[in-house]
## 1
Amino acid sequence: VAAAPRRRGDRPRAARCRVVESLYSNSAYHGAAMCAAHIATELEAFLALVERKHGLTRSAIARRGCYLSHETGTHATPASSCAANEIHALRQCFGADDLRRLVLVNTKCLTGHPMAVGVEDVVAALALSRPRTPPPPCPAGTVVDEYFGGGLTLCGDGARPCSYALRFAAGFGSQVAFVLYASA
């Protein structure tokens, strides 16, 4: 439980959510790069597990959820950046229509890449306790790399209900973890 930010005189408010499902895997692909195919395969396996075990479709997640990315906001090349690998996996697993509905949230554009990947879990809990998509951390006029193409909803406007948060974390050696949170 994380305490939500508050104004002077406000009572503390707890952020509440529940873990629907999680998946961790390691392809041992490479010590310093992510494997796009591995990320897409594992995301597909995770979403299929959620659909089969919990009856929750990827369309429902896209319509009422947000995706908390691992990427840092620094795009090196289409072949090696975390962002490119994540967008590839999202496009492959959600398809164009559902991906257009899914709000992509990134905290590392504000924090940089801290050791470990726990900041996004707190943001997910807070977003689900509101229940609205997180407000945009991206500055107005942010330019989206043309490699990523259109059909992406970056950051959100804070106005759409948010019932699910899909969380992705990655590490060297193509270690990947997915967690799906839902509002409690």
## 2
Amino acid sequence: RRRAHGRRRGGSGWGATMAAGKLSARAAVSGRRVAAVARMGSTGGRAALVVRAEAPGQPSWLPGAKNPAYLDGSLPGDFGWDPLGLGSDPETLKWYGQAELVHARFAMLGAAGILLPEAAAKIGISWPGAGVSWVDAGKFEYFTDYKTLWTIQLFLMGWAETRRYLDYKSPGSMNQDPAFTGNKLPDGNSPGYPGGIFDPFGWSKGDLKTLQLKEIKNGRL
């Protein structure tokens, strides 16, 4: 009888420990820290499971892992992934955030530039170059030769990227349109998220942080 009772007590303690482990695993996935302790009660020999929930932690790329101190979640899509410590310098980290954002947008535009013309050509929409594979698009003869197109793109992109860099160095300094003086971006915007005419639907007035996270996730994909 004593041995059986001992097994029951041991089984209760083991069950409490397993339950604590399951709670901790679930908490790690959801970003919430949970401290669970199995204790033996003074009467009845039953194990009591004590659970203490702490404030939700920052999401991590590896559940339960501790993120570097400099990755505090302020950047969109920050999940603590920096195994080489490239972002340990604050100014460098800020630049990396802007660089990733721009590359993500170019990647999404590139994907749209491949899929949408192909779909339009298949449903019968015609234009010069319709049906040309994106692999051969660079070889296609448009209204002028590729050297002229390259030169035009160089100047247009150079102008846009120079203004973007100047706005990054001094936020808000490029809000006024130099060509169309009636256009001005709203004050208080942040580099990479100008708003105004670049936000015709006014989405930035809502849950901007969620939209920023979705954008960077889609860009990475």
## 3
Amino acid sequence: MEVLGSSGQSSGKVWIEDHPTEGWSPGTVDSVGADGSYIVFDEQGEQFKVLQDKARPVDQACLRGVDDLLSLGDFNEGALLHNCRVRYFRDDIYTGIGGPILISVNPFCALPSLYSEQKQKFYRDRASASNNDLVVPPHLYSVGADAHAAMLGETRNQSIIISGESGAGKTEATKRILAYFANLARTTGPSTVGGMSIEDQVLRANPILEAFGNAKTVRNDNSSRF
């Protein structure tokens, strides 16, 4: 395996597994030790040894943080985690896997522009565009827009599954995507049904959904399981 040179597609980097702070971290190969192991330095300059038979080269794409993990040249745990980490620190908390699957990392802070009316309109317009090859950044709204378009185009019910560990942001994601559908209904159909706005009806469904699957966990006394 070529990792020391700069020719071809070699990045000169290998994955440092079980990194003390990052879990998986890209490391630059400096030399080969007396025992045949690679002498590798991480981004902070700390030295590690990586056995040659366990060394995995780092794909350059994950160092940039791509939108879609399937576009990585080498799909593995280290590449997946580091790609999401790079995007997270750019406030790009969403990463796609081939379109239908979306990875979300809880930012633990407010990102107002991420859920603005303009953002909703962007994904809504994209879904109604005739160009099916139009690529947009991964987002909760892209999942909702695709599900809505498939429901209308295929005349079949659609499901969106939101899962994750306690504290991952499932409830917040559910509220955001329900708000998207409520706003979609308001802009494409009648504003009220039975004297109540469609937005209020959709958002009021959330507590009912949560009632089907709440449980006490070590992190949360009332964690949503649904």
## 4
Amino acid sequence: MLSRVRRLSTISKHAHTSKLKPTSTNNHHSNYFQKFQFSQQSTQSSYPSIGSLASSLHGGLDDLQIEFQKLALDFTNTELKPYAKEWDKQKCVSYDTIKKAAELGFGGLYISEENNGLGLSRHDTTLIFEILSQGCVSTTALITIHNMTAWMLDKLHHDQDLKEEYLQRMINCEVMGSYCLTEPHCGSDAAALRTTAKKDGDYYIISGSKAFISGGGKNDVYFTMARTDPNVDNTR
């Protein structure tokens, strides 16, 4: 049986990726659970308050999912809530804080384990984002978008050189990704987008307009939604 994840007493000191091998290859949670092994010095009484998790604790989640929530709650109480008000006043987001989240694996939540992600399901990931958003919605939004773009590079791109250049740095949040879908004339209606990508030798020429890109002007890698064939039915 999986042992309980111990609470982080100091994230910068205790958050690390365990090199232990999983004890069972039959449990799909075993591999990434080992990445959340922390100091065994913490006691049960040192867990953060989990009153807000009462419904989840009785809502059919398994032990590991609950521990992920506790891990996210500890990060929220330590690294997000104390600073969120000031960030709002300054109209900024702390990318250093996002890098701290990456130390817990939050930069590659549903990236495949073979590429050093945690390999979580969308449900597991949502449980974590739900807790983080209670501390700072803006920071959590950037982390969710970043995870989506990292997943796109992991699953949808076949260029191994691109993966080697960017994926691990994205998982570490050293490089941040943005998702470029929204256009001025249609919002986020993907079926109506007009931006095109025309092949020119080894490159594509992008033509079009995008708007409301989260992390725009600050992030490093931009995944742009475009049409490679303008003659294809827009509903496809």
